[in-house]
Design a protein that fits this description.
This protein is an all-alpha fold. Helices cover 59% and strands 2% of the residues. It has 16 helices and four strands. The chain is globular and about 50 Å long. This is Rhamnogalacturonyl hydrolase YesR.
Length: 368
Amino acid sequence: MSKKLFLSLFALFAYQLLFAQKGTLTGFSKGSTPEEIGKRLSYHFVNSRHDLYAGRYMHYAGVCTWNGALDYALKTQDQKLIKLLQDKFEPFFTYEKALLPPMNHVDYNMFGSLALKLYQITKDERYKKIGLAYADTQWELPGNANAAEKAWADKGFSWQTRLWIDDMYMITVVQNEAYKVTGDRKYIDRAAKEMVLYLNELQRPNGLFYHAPDVPYYWGRGDGWMAVGMPDLLRILPKDHQDRPRIMEGYLKMMKSLKDYQRPSGMWNQLIDQPDLWVETSGTAMFTYGFIVGLQEGWLDAATYAPAARKAWLAMVPYVDARNNVTEVCIGTGKKNDKQHYQDRPRNAGDLHGQAPYLWCAAALSGK
């Protein structure tokens, strides 16, 4: 073989290898590997104080981050981290019991997902008892329920239904974990029934979701809850479940739209379809997670979505600062029919709304 031919073949091989690597979710360079990022964010969370609602109850963003750190620890088999995360929960059984959220709101009840995840790791019945209480009370109509709550319950939905897109993570996450723990179909049936309701009521023709019916803006993190909730539900929903086709339809429709709106940098903006707004990290991480799961499960075309997911992850990494805080995270945001409202939202470094989905991505990409 001539030297010229050898060099040509070598160049072709190198190009094919590079192209193949760009189309996969492996082979990240040092400093950007999911294992490194996951470790930095997880240990940062372990050493942090609880994120509380007005100093009273555990905030759902903290629960989301805790779940992400546990997922990362399990994927990487980091036994030290698992133990630290378990130890962090132990005071809830004693002197921090007052910090347990009341069982009367979607944002509060999703705390049960953390207890149920810890039960699956430890088989400690204390976790199971707490977790199932949160899962069951989402469907147990309280005595002081109002007319709207009673109406939802009469139709077989959670009395906590409010048709906010956030709910399709908050409700489904605790029902999913209850199903994993018990194998009882009622839990997965509940989650699927709710998801179909929300898809039918809220998804727009382009696959995305307005922040609210009267607020025609596609807010990144708001849509992110759907981008995470759907694939997490589909992963455990039985193949023969009657609601699976509808949920898969909604998921694929959303993923296609997100692919179309991804910025050249790999990120997504605070308002998904508004190119003049700033890039936002929590929504970007949620959308990236939706891509990653779809690729790993074979629901998304690898040639189309793997480069997009890879580009997104690599774009996300530089937003983790030297203190292991995710930057450019939009703070909690209520609806408002005003574009400037979204443009002007403060951005926090280390806000757990951003730490959590970064950890979900790191966990999903880590391990074998």
